[in-house]
Design goal:
Helix 20 packs antiparallel against helix 21. This protein is globular. It contains 25 helices and no strands. With 499 residues, it is mostly helical. The longest helix has 30 residues.
Length: 499
């Protein structure tokens, strides 16, 4: 623990940049996901009032439900579009410029949504939500890649897991802001909707004072002095030659190699198992049951005898416990490793879902059974935040070289946003048909994914990208001859004989 704290003192520049990236990154997603729930009744009433003023009669209930569903889902459509373009924009302009422009887009979207009530236009909410989705779809892969590239090897897991922490923090802040005593009231909901522009403004003002990632400066721009300057700014004074050597080795293997497109990455046999792992990790996050748990929390609290106001505060306490668990994940990921947190987290979560299914089935039999369900739900969210919530992001960053990272994150982000859209569209019908037995589907997914991780995912803790690639080559090529890679020769050296 003492070594961890001393690292935080030495790497103050890195910690500050991680904070800036997190505020304008995954914090936004968590914040918008949580606040939209608290605005549902107010936005529906606003749509009805606007319709009545325009056409002289209230809107039909089916049309109101459609407009509200479209308001929620258009965020995912924008996210899918934004994530699809992240590879092209990252390669052409770099991560820093993309994030700065992305913040401007988010501020404009927040302004449009904030003025919707004054303008008596619910269409402005739809436009703003779509723009927010595009911004979110672009910033999430940029955030993950940026954090992974600016971190030294010994703090890489900690740095990558902070994206999960900021997502949870954004969700908790959104839950607090959405309370009726604050911004969740009938009069202030437009301000709550526009408040997503504040984190974007913070990042827009502060990010210019930080450098581009050292690997990007060296491998894409060929700026060795700029790379060293960025390392000193982020990591402080010290011996960082080993990290620079790792970047030089990766640069040597990338000589005459361009950033791959999505199709080129899919067709490349040298990255086949890395793609299998990223698809498994992304699909499991969507199908682990965490969204189903959030859906059932309020129902369990009501069954336990809590009134609506108290249930709202209890839901907030669950979000805060998840936030604390995310902090714990950031502090232990370098000690336990990614594979242990993923595999153990999946299997424990699967076991908890089986127990939750039993307690929900017996909820009407014993008066104390809802409290058991609540305890298991809290434990499930804590295990998710400590294990897969943080380790997934770290693993996705670490298993790909820089030349493959942009298209790999496009694939991951597209799958993620498709999952958000599909699960959001089908989950209500699944719950209606299967009730709490829907948890059994997620349980099977968790145990299956845990076994896949156990058998095929190499541990990435403390390893360079070249060492991780060598581990995957054993799976990608098996008995075939592994293509030789010049791990020790860089373009900065020229060898010749005396003659």
């Amino acid at each position: 623990m003492t070594g961890f704290l001393s690292n935080l003192v030495q790497y103050q520049g890195l910690i500050r940049m991680i904070t800036v990236l997190g505020i304008g990154g995954t914090f936004q997603i968590g914040f918008q996901i949580s606040t939209i729930t608290y605005m549902s009744q107010h936005v529906k009433a606003f749509i009805n009032e606007t319709w009545l003023e325009r056409y002289g009669h209230p809107i039909q209930q089916d049309n109101l439900l459609f407009l509200w569903s479209f308001t929620v889902s258009i965020f995912g459509i924008g996210g899918l579009l934004g994530s699809s373009g992240s590879r092209y924009l990252t390669v052409k302009f770099g991560k820093k410029k993309c994030l700065l422009c992305n913040n401007v887009l988010m501020i404009v979207a927040a302004s449009i949504m904030g003025c919707s009530k004054i303008s008596q236009s619910f269409e402005m909410i739809l436009i703003g939500r779509f723009m927010c989705g595009v911004s979110a779809g672009l910033c999430v892969p940029l955030h993950h890649q940026y954090v992974g590239e600016i971190s030294p090897r010994k703090l890489r897991g900690f740095a990558n897991s902070t994206s999960s922490f900021f997502w949870t923090l954004g969700k908790a802040i959104g839950q607090i802001s959405g309370q009726r005593e604050l911004l969740g009231s009938q009069a202030l909901w437009p301000l709550l909707m526009a408040s997503c522009g504040l984190p974007a403004l913070v990042q827009l003002v502060t990010l210019p004072f930080f450098p581009e990632s050292p690997p990007y400066l060296l491998m894409q721009k060929g700026d060795q002095e700029g790379c060293k300057k960025a390392i000193r700014q982020l990591w402080g004074e010290g011996q960082h030659q080993a990290e620079i050597d790792d970047i030089m080795k990766e640069k040597a293997t990338m000589k005459n190699t361009k950033i791959l497109s999505v199709l080129e990455l899919v067709r490349e046999p040298a990255f086949r198992w890395q793609l299998y792992m990223i698809v498994t990790l992304t699909a499991t996050i969507q199908l682990c049951g965490i969204n189903a748990i959030y859906f059932y929390t309020f129902e369990v609290l009501q069954a336990a005898g809590f009134d609506e106001k108290m249930a709202s505060y209890m839901t907030l306490s669950i979000g805060l416990s998840e936030l604390v668990a995310a902090v714990v994940c950031s502090s232990i990921i370098e000690r336990l490793g990614r594979k242990v947190l993923l595999r153990g987290g999946y299997w424990i979560m699967g076991s908890l879902l089986a127990a939750i299914t039993v307690t929900l089935s017996l909820q009407d039999w014993y008066f104390w059974m809802p409290y058991c369900s609540l305890a298991l739900i809290i434990l499930f969210t804590v295990v998710f935040a400590v294990g897969p919530g943080g380790a997934t992001v770290s693993t996705r960053v670490e298993i790909f070289k820089l030349s493959c990272r942009p298209p790999a994150f496009v694939i991951s982000s597209v799958l993620n946003w498709l999952g958000v859209f599909v699960i959001g569209s089908t989950f209500p019908f699944i719950v209606e048909r299967l009730k709490h037995f829907c948890f059994l589907i997620f349980m099977v997914v968790l145990f299956t994914s845990g076994m896949i991780i156990h058998l095929f995912l190499p541990e990435t803790k403390g390893k360079s990208i070249m060492e991780i690639t060598e581990e995957f080559n054993k799976l990608n090529f098996k008995n075939k001859k592994i293509p030789a890679a010049p791990n020790h020769v860089t373009e900065d050296y020229t060898f010749c004989t005396r003659l």
